[in-house]
Design goal:
447 residues; 15-stranded mixed beta sheet; alpha+beta; Aminopeptidase; 15 helices; single chain; 2 domains
Length: 447
């Protein structure tokens, strides 16, 4: 059953809105402090009343929710047009196809779509919150009804640079309208939005819609290299070791081998790339004693489908490195609105002294430097010590969490607090013995 609930958010561009819109370009920490009257940014918080500031002026935005997959499919074209017209950063992971494929392959059991769409008086799509609703199991004891972004809420981390999408000049109405709409819904206990870019133009307004209950935390760092200058200038921003040695690494490998570094340009080359991509990625990790990501359920199918579609839309940048006629390295990035998101790579083992991974990344960055319209090479989040060798420049990712008052949420908080103490105070070797003693009964949070 498709439930459509409507609310109307009205407003004009007031001084407060203009200040918040400008603040949205400076980073969340500063914005939240300004828009929340200096309120600390730490969480989670408890929501025990449904209140939101509503302006009553001529301009209106109507907010509805879509819960059927047929509706998901029906707004594909509008969705992507909205993303292209939005003022978000790093928008590839906000696009329709990525979210649709993720939903088809990774939606948790018994989850339900919760796509909040905002339209202006002419019916134009001006905002969209790509959310879903599911019951999160807490150690098998009980479930917390949770609202979160599509692309999150599972153990497999694929999506980053997430946000509530808003057309330029509508970020205030969309942020407040989505917040008001969520508060009107019954049954949810936890609102958890992970991975919002710190420069989100919508987050300050969304948080303001929840009043004093709003809290946010830094959850990840997103390292990047600016690529709008020439290579010599770009190198000045690299880590000292890479900056000093990378050209020497490239010269050495070019001296010892016949090198051919290619960017994939044709469908025929794409099919060859996909085979090498999976093989070399697996070889890289299995040489380290790790299984490799393509052993995970649906991972190969997911990557093949998303990469092929991105390539068709000119949103994929794929590179191969051949040494003496053999493909020894591949790199795959998604490209959108001037940002190349380095997503995965694969490198053949046995080339340690030639620093194969560093050489391939450097050549890919050089290709982005030479390209028109690519201003950033994004290393993505999730840690990775090698990223620190490349750059110290990063964006912050934000985690927004809000709990409604109630027995389940209090119990959820108590268990999470206890698990935190357990992990901070007990050494790993003791925790390992506990996990071994519990065997399959050990909760995943203790592993």
């Amino acid at each position: 059953m498709n439930t459509i609930v409507r609310t109307e958010q009205s407003g004009v561009v007031s001084q407060e809105q203009a200040a918040l819109d400008a603040c949205g370009q400076k980073g969340t920490s500063a914005c939240v402090s300004s828009s929340m009257g200096g309120q600390a940014v730490d969480g989670p918080a408890l929501l025990d009343q449904q209140s939101v500031e509503m302006l009553r002026e001529p301009h209106k935005v109507t907010t509805t929710v879509l819960t059927r997959e047929t509706d998901f499919d029906a707004i594909a074209e509008e969705w992507d047009e909205l993303v292209s017209a939005s003022c978000q950063h790093g928008v590839f992971f906000l696009r329709w196809h990525w979210n649709r494929v993720w939903w088809r392959m990774y939606a948790p059991p018994q989850s339900e779509l919760f796509l909040i769409v905002c339209r202006d008086q002419s019916g134009q799509l001006v905002g969209l919150a790509p959310l879903y609703w599911h019951g999160r199991s807490v150690h098998g004891l009980f479930k917390v009804q949770q609202i979160c972004f599509i692309g999150t809420g599972t153990k497999l981390k694929l999506s980053e640079h997430l946000d509530i999408i808003a057309r330029s000049k509508y970020q205030y109405l969309v942020g407040q309208g989505v917040a008001a709409f969520i508060q009107q819904q019954t049954g949810w206990q936890r609102l958890w939005l992970w991975g919002i870019h710190a420069n989100s133009p919508v987050l300050p307004h969304f948080m303001k819609g929840f009043g004093k209950a709003a809290r946010a935390l830094s959850c990840d760092q997103l390292p990047y290299i600016a690529t709008r200058a020439d290579w010599a200038t770009v190198k000045l921003g690299l880590g000292s070791n890479i900056r000093t040695n990378i050209d020497r690494y490239i010269r050495r490998i070019q001296k010892d081998y016949k090198c051919q570094f290619n960017r994939i340009r044709t469908p025929e080359e794409l099919e060859e790339f996909m085979g090498a991509f999976v093989q070399l990625h697996q070889e890289r990790w299995q040489s380290k004693g790790e299984p490799g990501s393509f052993t995970l359920p649906n991972r190969k199918a997911f990557m093949e489908e998303t990469v092929r579609e991105a390539f068709r839309c000119d949103r994929a940048r794929l590179w191969t490195l051949f040494l003496d006629g053999q493909c020894v390295a591949v790199l795959q990035a998604f490209v959108d609105r001037g940002v190349a998101h380095y997503f995965q790579g694969g490198f053949k083992s046995g080339y340690d002294k030639h620093h194969l991974g560093s050489v391939t990344i450097a050549l890919a960055i050089q290709d982005c430097v030479q390209a028109d319209g690519i201003g950033e090479f994004d290393f993505m989040g999730g840690g990775g010590a090698y990223k620190d060798h490349w750059t110290k420049t990063s964006y912050e990712a934000i985690e927004f969490e809000l709990l409604r008052t109630g027995f389940h949420t209090k119990l959820f908080e108590a268990i999470r607090y206890a698990v935190g103490i357990y992990k901070r105070t007990l050494p790993e070797h003791i925790r390992k013995k506990i996990r071994k003693a519990l065997g399959p009964l050990a909760p995943s949070s203790l592993r």
